[in-house]
Amino acid sequence: MASVVFADLVGSTGIFERLGDETAGRFVTQLTTALAKIFEQHNGRVVKLLGDGLFVVFPHEGEAVTACIAIQERLQQKPVYPGGMGQPVQMQMGIESGEVVEIEGDCYGDAVNSAARLADLAGADQILTSQRVRDALAPEQQRKLRSLGPMYLRGKQEVTEIFRVDWQPQRDVEATVMGVSMFKSSAEAALHVTANGQTLTLLPHGERLTMGRGTTANLAINDGRVSRIHATLEWKGGHFILNDVSSFGTWVYFGNQTEPVVLRRTECYLVGNGQIALGCDRNAEAAPLASFAVTA
Fold first, then answer.
1. Which residues contact 262 (CB under 8 A, 6 or more apart)?
2. Is residue 185 part of a domain?
3. Where is the domain boundary, 140, 171, 202?
4. pTM (2 decimals)?
5. Is 61 in the same domain as 124?
């Protein structure tokens, strides 16, 4: 058993476009090398550098969480600016634990795949992990985790309970309560999604609906950041599910939460009410937004 961490640089494509391949490549190599040293200081073994990220294995879950928090705090306290200008470096991280098979220095297994998908799912400055990791943590570390509810990770048949590590509790003083009603389903429920003055309503066992830029989408949102078929809405397993099938991802904001669930070819349950940003976060200029509400 081992704990696996994937840590990816956010927006690396933009850095390469702005600085050029040679300068950006040198910057990213220096950054990942420095981050590798921090992981190693917390008993992590860097399996490989992934161009704009790192793949690290730890013997214990607590060490993996501590190391990820240390890096996020380091980048917050001493921001690093690519080329000395623009936006500071941000990392997105995923942590999973399980059996890992080592072959010729590389590591394989379901935990490796899940950690990579959790990192893909995380937003900037976020650390996401699973129920398995949470259960193995000491109580003081468990208290730093907030449930994002059960989700389907790409390639997995069963739902995974996802948790966000609140390493910046001052940014989100409200506990995440998305999971409160996750396991309650109602045949009388309805999902309402509204954008550009048009509202879609999905009922239990109703036909799957689509959102996108294409003329065939049930809810059309004409924006270059929106894919022709960007996301689907369906009733499955007693719940309303949003499935991202886009090129650039979908940001889901629940209730008054300021931190989104970022979907990249993954799914999440829709509960309560909130906003869906297609192709970018809702703070982007003229972000294409839809609002949603689940009623009983």
1. 121, 122, 123, 126, 249, 250, 251, 252
2. no
3. 171
4. 0.62
5. yes
